[in-house]
Write a structure and sequence with these properties.
The protein has 4 domains: 189 residues, Beta-Lactamase, CATH 3.30.450.40; 96 residues, Beta-Lactamase, CATH 3.30.450.20; 174 residues, Rossmann fold; 81 residues, no CATH class. Helix content is 41%, strand content 17%. It has 26 helices and 19 strands. It has a 5-stranded antiparallel sheet, with helices on both faces. It has a 5-stranded antiparallel sheet with strand order 7-6-10-9-8. Helix 4 packs antiparallel against helix 8. The radius of gyration is 33 Å and the shape is globular. It starts with a helix and ends with a strand. It holds the Pfam family AAA_lid_14. Keywords: ATP-binding, DNA-binding, Nucleotide-binding, Transcription, Transcription regulation. GO terms for molecular function: ATP binding; sequence-specific DNA binding.
Length: 651
């Protein structure tokens, strides 16, 4: 215990210890008595998104000051729940063992006296070192924490810097207070900015809602403002119009300028416009913007269509990221919340980690996030970390110089990070990344530079990283397969995609969607799913998630049959029991089973079976030969045998 003199110097320690004794805190406790994980933690991180994003650059800056000195930085919310952790690998291992991880509550009620919890309780910056901590397990630490307040003065979290107790220094608390103040200032600026943005959006929404093309320009013809309708009318992208001069869009600009300069009016005059596809005539009204000295400063041009012009495609040909949020099918409430959360974080510079089972649509979400962000016109590069051989992954990601190794391309080759510069790189199956490669990825995240193989030159890259995995990375960290510091860097903004079995109310909607697109692609008629079969589909667990559902739709459309294992667990007959389940999903296997069913039904009669199948006799003979089917075995089959033979139930 500290001496009375020390406690007098830090009265808040004395008050905190007294609170801990009154709450009955066990001094031998090791972990916080309150931990959250899974959906509960995901919801918490979604709620605190703004604080996490605002604090992240200041946490990085704070950590960079003490990097390599065995410190780590922690951000909590107003309840003391850890939201984010970054730090040195060695000390992070000890913190990880004490479960000082996102989801752990660090308030005094759950872990006793510590800088974060005591800062929340006292409402002031505090430093807690060694035995000043109430629980013995934390005597190894020195912790400096400061409350973070919103513009209204309410505490919304804490920022903390923790290291070994031997490293205690009063300057550490000063750095933390400075960083917390900077976060508060940024939140204040963001609040004012949000108000200005809201006002701007209000005006722009009003302008965009007007069914007319509205442009403003100065007297030199430089366009200052253009609403969405104007871009659609002229067939240009908004960015293109902003780079153009007003006289490039229509004929007669000089007349408009001279008329308004002479204080005349220019209303509902037909003018010829230079649209991208053809030359159209629009109706133009022009209005002057006058300064205090009665001088003409700008001109507002309002175009109305004489006839409707066709909209040009908004997509860039060959664009790699083709999915957008409006293309994602679903009405499950939790799933829709996930989409809204993904939209909100799309423009953040922070790393996103998409978690979910195989087949849940992780890359679709990654593409949608890219297309919802300000990087939508920049590259989207997808990399499957599990599909690249271990000896090639470094050159694939970071590139190489000429002569770096045997077989290196002349002139070298850029890596995926260089190709994605300015845009987004999607690292799928990040849990498969070799351990020895992980420090290189960590360096890109922390420093924003890459180095090609065979070179010492550092190349700066501005890349938004979206990672995805179907593994439990926390377990991989515990097993030693994944670095803790990289895990925390990637897990800044996690998104959890629910498996299909947890959003079964979306199955009818997804079935309808896939039946439509698969039917058009295969040039087949659409198939209507009877209600009784839809019930079986709803009862199925869908281990392959949406990818499996799409495959089943394709099988149904090709065979006009429903695979029996979706509605009947115990098959009375398995023609090929030695085959794996995956083999049974192959189209050739399905065709084989359907031919067996039809031959069985018509007792081996080739002519009748061929007619029922809609193919010629010779075609059926070829398929019988291909699958080595002995038709004689069907001649004596009873109806009971026949009903138990089929792998499919035709609609």
């Amino acid at each position: 215990m500290k001496t009375m003199d020390t406690l007098k110097e830090k009265p808040y320690i004395c008050r905190s210890h007294e609170r801990c004794r009154q709450m009955g805190i066990d001094m031998t406790r090791i972990f916080s008595s309150k931990m959250i994980a899974g959906d509960v933690l995901q919801k918490k991180l979604e709620e605190k998104r703004e604080l996490i994003i605002t604090a992240e650059p200041f946490m990085n800056q704070l950590y960079n000051f003490v990097k390599g000195s065995d410190f780590f930085s922690i951000l909590t919310d107003e309840e003391g729940c850890i939201l984010s952790v970054i730090g040195d690998e060695g000390i992070l291992s000890e913190a990880f063992d004490l479960k000082m991880i996102p989801g752990a509550y660090m308030d005094e009620q759950h872990i006793g006296t510590n800088a974060m919890g005591t800062a929340l309780a006292e409402g002031i910056p505090v430093q807690v070192s060694g035995s000043e901590h109430f629980i013995q397990a934390y005597h190894r630490w020195t912790c400096s924490a400061s409350p973070i307040r919103n513009p209204e003065g309410k505490i919304i979290g804490t920022l903390d810097l923790t290291g070994y107790s031997a490293l205690v220094h009063s300057h550490t608390l000063g750095m933390v207070v400075a960083a917390a103040n900077a976060i508060e200032k940024m939140l204040e600026v963001k609040s004012y900015t949000d108000q200005l943005v809201l006002a701007k959006q209000h005006i722009e929404t009003i302008i965009d809602s007007i069914p007319a093309g509205i442009l403003t320009c100065d007297l030199n013809g430089s366009i200052q403002l253009a609403n969405q309708y104007a871009a659609e009318m002229f067939g240009f992208r908004e960015k293109e119009i902003w780079r153009m001069k007003i006289w490039e869009l229509f004929e007669g600009w000089e007349i408009v300028q001279s008329t308004l300069s002479a204080k005349g009016s220019f209303l509902d005059e037909d003018v010829y416009v230079n649209a991208r596809k053809n030359k159209l005539q629009f109706s133009l009204s022009a209005y002057p913007i006058i300064d205090r000295e009665e001088n003409l400063r700008e001109i507002i041009c309002v175009f109305k269509e004489v006839k409707k012009a066709r909209k040009l495609a908004n997509k860039i040909m060959g664009r790699q990221a083709i999915y957008t949020f409006d293309k994602i099918i679903g009405r499950n409430e939790r799933f829709l919340q996930t989409i809204e959360y993904a939209k909100k974080i799309a423009d953040s510079k922070s790393t996103i980690l998409i978690l979910g089972e195989s087949g849940t649509g992780k890359e679709i979400f990654a593409q949608s996030i890219h297309n919802h962000s300000g990087r939508r016109d920049e590259p989207f590069v997808a990399v499957n970390c599990g599909a690249i051989p271990r000896n090639l992954i470094e050159s694939e990601l970071f590139g190489y110089e000429e002569g770096a190794f045997t077989g290196a391309k002349r002139g070298g080759n850029p890596g995926k990070f260089e190709v994605a510069d300015g845009g987004t790189i999607f690292l799928d199956e990040i849990g498969e990344m070799p351990l020895e490669m992980q420090p290189n990825l960590l360096r890109v995240i922390e420093e924003g530079v890459i180095t090609r193989i065979g070179s010492t030159k550092q190349i700066p890259v501005n890349v938004r990283i979206i990672a995805a995995t179907n593994r439990d990375l926390r377990q991989e960290v515990e097993k030693g397969n994944f670095r803790k510091d990289l895990y925390y860097r990637l897990n800044v903004l996690p998104i959890y995609l629910s498996p299909l079995r947890e959003r079964k109310d979306d199955i009818p909607l997804l079935m309808e969607y896939f039946i439509g697109i698969v039917s058009r692609r295969l040039n087949k008629r659409t198939v209507k799913i009877p209600p009784e079969y839809m019930r079986h589909l709803m009862d199925y667990d869908w281990p392959g998630n949406i990818r499996e559902l799409e495959n089943i739709v394709e099988l149904i459309i090709n065979t006009e049959s429903l695979p029996q294992d979706l509605y009947k667990k115990n098959l009375s007959f398995q023609p090929h029991p030695e085959k794996d389940v995956e083999d049974c999903l192959q189209l050739e296997h399905m065709e084989h089973q359907h031919i067996l069913y039809v031959l069985k039904k018509f007792k081996g009669n080739i002519s009748v079976a061929a007619e029922a199948l809609g193919i010629g006799r010779n075609t059926l003979y070829r398929k019988i030969h291909k699958y080595k089917i002995d038709c004689s075995i069907f001649e004596q089959c009873s109806d009971l045998e026949q009903s138990s033979f089929s792998m499919y139930v035709p609609f």
